[in-house]
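Incident log, support desk, overnight shift.

02:14 A customer reports that sequence design results differ from what the structure should imply. Their input is reproduced verbatim below. On-call engineer (initials T.W.) acknowledged and began investigating.
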């Protein structure tokens, strides 16, 4: 069981994306990534790995514009595979279908592939290294950006071909463009209850609960003058964070004490971080 994405931790569970063409996106998420369709309507599709929990929700509203550049918003959402063997299988699959990757890295705590969907929404697909191998130096975990040893990964391939996302696949983390690291830190740590686990100078911050290497990444790589995307732009509509019940109410109280607007819905709350990234807060 993945204890980092379960109570008492706070973790990302789902992302809602705005896409320009539902059928084009659906073909990518089904055929290239291997998600299952849970629900589908004219303008919306719910995608799952296990046939039960939605990980990616696609919306295709009318009048949507192409992805705007140099904005805050989604850098990538990260799909966590259960094993290194699964990573080997999807590498073989990407080679077979000739889908272009945008990068591949060994982060010491994990091994990752990077790509984008047809609208340019960033995606990471990764497998964690055993937590016993993570190098903690004080309160921070070492995360590098090294060349991925594909040959080593392929040595663990079990001989079976990729047949879709394994049922144990989950949303591993969300990485966001923001425009002020300190404001983001105040919101996510003092407000929502995350802890800092890694600084990348003054350019990026990685935060988590329960000593995971990160549940959320935050960076200012699009610039400190970046503004939120237009409402009719391709990209992330919102992402969902899951809280234990007692921690959610406490977080809402802290945010309200910080004069941050929190909107109560039927069984959740909606809030925006200082960079305009929308978050749905739910109870596990």
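02:41 Re-run completed on a clean worker. Output:
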């Amino acid at each position: 069981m993945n204890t980092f994405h379960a109570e008492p931790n706070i973790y990302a569970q789902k992302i809602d994306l705005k896409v320009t063409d539902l059928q084009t996106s659906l073909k990518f998420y089904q055929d290239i990534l291997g998600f299952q369709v849970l629900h589908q309507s004219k303008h919306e599709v719910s995608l799952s790995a296990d046939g039960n929990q939605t990980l990616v929700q696609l919306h295709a509203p009318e009048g949507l514009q192409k992805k705007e550049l140099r904005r805050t918003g989604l850098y990538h959402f990260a799909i966590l595979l259960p094993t290194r063997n699964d990573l080997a299988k999807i590498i073989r699959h990407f080679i077979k279908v000739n889908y272009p990757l945008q990068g591949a890295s060994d982060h010491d705590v994990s091994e990752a592939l990077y790509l984008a969907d047809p609208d340019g929404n960033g995606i990471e697909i990764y497998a964690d290294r055993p937590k016993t191998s993570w190098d903690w130096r004080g309160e921070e975990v070492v995360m590098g950006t090294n060349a991925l040893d594909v040959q080593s990964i392929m040595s663990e391939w079990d001989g079976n071909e990729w047949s879709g996302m394994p049922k144990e696949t989950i949303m591993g983390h969300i990485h966001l463009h923001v425009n002020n690291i300190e404001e983001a830190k105040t919101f996510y740590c003092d407000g929502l209850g995350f802890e800092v686990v890694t600084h990348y100078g003054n350019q990026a911050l990685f935060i988590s609960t329960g000593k995971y290497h990160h549940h959320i990444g935050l960076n200012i790589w699009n610039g400190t003058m970046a503004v939120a995307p237009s409402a009719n732009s391709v990209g992330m509509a919102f992402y969902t964070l899951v809280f234990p019940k007692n921690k959610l109410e406490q977080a809402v109280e802290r945010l309200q004490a910080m004069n941050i607007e929190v909107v109560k819905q039927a069984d959740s709350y909606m809030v925006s971080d200082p960079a305009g990234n929308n978050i749905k807060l739910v109870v596990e």
